């Protein structure tokens, strides 16, 4: 074959291969850069209670919440934020999952604490006796191990049903307290210890049911370690406000919860 014809043949082959790569290779490239359609579900720990800079809704969604912070630092095609302070599992099922669609690619959630009576338990411990605190904590632990697993299963199943193509990331709750000396007006070391132990039980239940649902569990406890109430640099609020008490502050969401989510999203 003359050199000129050979060059033309090589050029034609290159163009053909290029067309094939464009036709076949684009989906792989597109998959690598799939648009993120993110929906943040859950309770006050997802809506950002304690973080300040709230919107005007009754759900106390904060500009300093971990979903907002994550969106600000990642390329996101769409973002929906139905997480609501005070939410329990039934609220997610009945109200929040409607934000999900077949095009949703990422779902995050914190849920279960309110089902287990988070606010009442902490209130009993903050203002009641050691025995009253122990009774409240034991009741919450029994609920967490006996009733909550079924509620979590229903919640994760509802999410899967509404967003079958999404990755579901379940974030846990931090331990609320450091157990060293904390002044005369603080909860006793005993109360703080059994509340932290209850948080560990809750984390174990949530992690177990998330795994059973094929979800990714990310544990917030290591990231908040050393920054609970009574720390020299606390990331959890004490009784500084009726609604915000025992929730992360803005620093806690940025340096506790955002790394918790980043650890499993990259």
UniProtKB/TrEMBL annotation:
SUPFAM superfamilies: SGNH hydrolase (SSF52266)
Domain SGNH hydrolase-type esterase: from-to ranges: 40-254
Signal peptide: 1-32
UniProt keyword Hydrolase present: yes
Superkingdom, natural source: Bacteria
EC numbers, comma separated: 3.1.-.-
InterPro entries on file: SEST-like, SGNH_hydro, SGNH_hydro_sf, TAT_signal
Protein name as annotated: SGNH/GDSL hydrolase family protein
Species whose genome carries this gene: Plantactinospora siamensis
């Amino acid at each position: 074959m003359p050199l000129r014809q050979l060059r033309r043949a090589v050029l034609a082959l290159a163009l053909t291969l290029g067309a094939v790569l464009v036709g076949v290779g684009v989906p792989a490239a597109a998959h690598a850069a799939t648009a993120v359609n993110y929906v943040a579900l859950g309770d006050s720990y997802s809506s950002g209670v304690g973080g300040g800079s709230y919107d005007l809704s009754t759900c106390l969604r904060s500009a300093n919440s971990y979903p907002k912070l994550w969106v600000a630092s990642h390329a996101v095609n769409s973002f929906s934020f139905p997480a609501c302070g005070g939410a329990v599992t039934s609220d997610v099922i009945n109200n929040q999952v409607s934000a999900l669609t077949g095009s949703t690619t990422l779902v995050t959630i914190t849920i279960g604490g309110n089902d287990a009576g988070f606010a009442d338990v902490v209130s009993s411990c903050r203002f009641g006796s050691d025995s009253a605190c122990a009774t409240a904590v034991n009741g919450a632990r029994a609920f967490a191990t006996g009733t909550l697993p079924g509620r979590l299963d229903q919640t994760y199943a509802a999410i899967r049903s509404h967003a079958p193509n999404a990755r579901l990331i379940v974030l846990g709750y931090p331990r609320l307290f450091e157990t060293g000396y904390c002044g005369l007006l603080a909860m006793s070391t005993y109360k703080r210890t059994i509340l932290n132990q209850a948080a560990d039980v809750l984390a174990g239940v949530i992690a177990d049911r998330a795994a059973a649902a094929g979800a990714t569990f990310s544990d917030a406890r290591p990231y908040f370690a050393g920054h609970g109430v009574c720390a020299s640099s606390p990331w959890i609020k004490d009784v500084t406000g009726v609604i915000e008490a025992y929730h992360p502050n803005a620093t806690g969401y940025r340096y506790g919860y955002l790394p918790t989510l980043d650890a499993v999203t990259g």
